[in-house]
Amino acid sequence: MCSQLPIIPFSLFLFLFPIIIQVVKSAPDNTNLVYKGCAKQSLQDPNGVYSSALSAIFGTLIQQSSKAMFFKTTSGSGQASITGLFQCRGDLTNLDCYNCVSRLPILMDKLCGKTVAARLQLLGCYMLYEVAGFSQISGMELLYKTCGETNAGGIGFEEKRDSALGSLESGIGSGNGGFYTTNYESIYVLGQCEGDLGSSDCGDCVKTAVQRSQVECGSSISGQVYLHKCFISYSYYPNGIPNPKKSSSSSSSSSSSSSSSSSYSSSSSSPSSSSSSSSSYSSPYSSSSSSSDTGSNTGKTVAIFLGGAAGVGFLVICLLFAKNLAKKHDDY
Questions:
Q1: What is the H or E stretch that residue 85 is in?
Q2: Around 37, how many Cα atoms within 13 Å sit in the side-chain half-sphere?
Q3: Are 267 and 289 in contact (CB under 8 A)?
Q4: First-residue to last-residue Cα distance in the chain
Q5: For residues 24 and 160, which has the higher predicted lDDT (pLDDT)?
Q6: What is the pTM of this model?
Q7: Mean pLDDT for the chain?
Q8: How far is 306 from 72, CA to CA, in rounded Å?
Q9: Angle, to 10 degrees, between the axis of helix 7-25 and the axis of helix 294-331?
Q10: Cα dihedral sign for 89, 109, 64, 25?
């Protein structure tokens, strides 16, 4: 008599397969590390005053990220005070913003340690803090850039890109709340200013970032330029922009206003990235020093693990099926 195929291993495979697809599709791209900026000076805190103020800052910022795209606050008093802020990309939901921001304090401590200031940029959000008296830099200061493949856009690519970036300049400087996206002939562009930046200053910052991208990235088919107070990105999609987004804007709220950052050591998130630094910034770290990003790596690790488990399950099914066929042949 012929025995039936075992049901449990096959059911296990059917159960695992959609999970694999879901994990791969839902990899947390917004929490991928873009760059870090760590102050060169360590935080001297024998009485724990700064640590208490910093913990209060982180708690407030995480709490506010569930209902705002930008928030800035100060904790402590006098020379023992610390100012911190976060900002999420304008097209994120409140939940996405919260999930992004809530990762930053742990990553800051892991990547920078206890320093007088730190700035961490993920793909979907960033956070910074600084102690009172920390030196300031211009809002137009270049913090980081990365450029894609060159000379791959075909004839007329740079003209199309410049037209798309020109539309970005016009859009973000027209009362759109400091966040704007648009596309032009297969080129998608995005720009955002820090939430407490005025409309005119925002337009000037984005204009500077656009000019830097044209100079720094040349004929690259993609680029990201992060200045102290704004950032822009552009990407070329020769086969059409996937799920193109409408031009959009996002207003932001703030609790105070002042510039921030400086005297950092910055480094990029991957060896292929091209980071730039100027003024008081330098890059003493190798780019692999930021490779400990837990966001995307966790999703990839889980996907690989589940994929391996499904592969083993499928192999078991094949072996049992072959064994069943052999037994069926013996029965005859």
A1: strand 82-88
A2: 28
A3: yes
A4: 9
A5: 160
A6: 0.69
A7: 75
A8: 41
A9: 160
A10: positive
* DSSP codes, 113-168: -SBSEEEEEESSEEEEEEETT-----TT-EEEEEE--SS-S-TTHHHHHHHHHHHH
Residue 130, classed as helix, strand or coil, is strand
Q: Where is pLDDT greater, at 146 or 9?
A: 146
Q: Give the C-alpha distances (Å, rounded to integers) separating 220 from 21, 27, 149, 156, 293.
A: 32, 26, 5, 13, 26
H or E element in which residue 253 lies: none
| Per-residue pLDDT tens over the stretch 275-304 | 333 333 333 222 223 333 333 343 443 344
C-alpha gyration radius of the chain: 24
Which of 177, 210, 187, 198 is CA-nearest to residue 90? 177
**35, 270 in Cβ contact below 8 A?**
no
Query: Where do we find the tokens 């890109």?
Result: 161
pLDDT at 27: 45
Nearest Cα residue to 193 out of 52, 329, 69, 43: 69
Mean pLDDT along residues 185-205: 93
- Average the pLDDT over 167-172 and give the result: 91
The angle at the Cα of 201, spanning 195 to 206, to the nearest 5 degrees, equals 85
Count of residues for the chain?
332
Structure tokens at 188: 């998608």
Look up residue 305 and give its amino acid.
Answer: F
CB 325 within 8 A of CB 49: no
Task: Please tell me the predicted confidence (pLDDT) of residue 332.
Answer: 53
DSSP code of residue 222: E
Dihedral sign computed on CA atoms, order 290, 62, 146, 211: negative
Cα-to-chain-centroid distance, residue 91: 13
What does the alpha-carbon distance between residue 117 and residue 104 come to, in Å, rounded to a whole number?
Answer: 14
Q: Lowest mean pLDDT: which of 64-68, 176-180, 219-223, 313-317?
A: 313-317
> What CA–CA distance (Å, rounded) separates 307 from 299?
12
Strand arrangement, sheet containing 187-193: 142-147, 222-227, 230-236, 187-193, 179-184
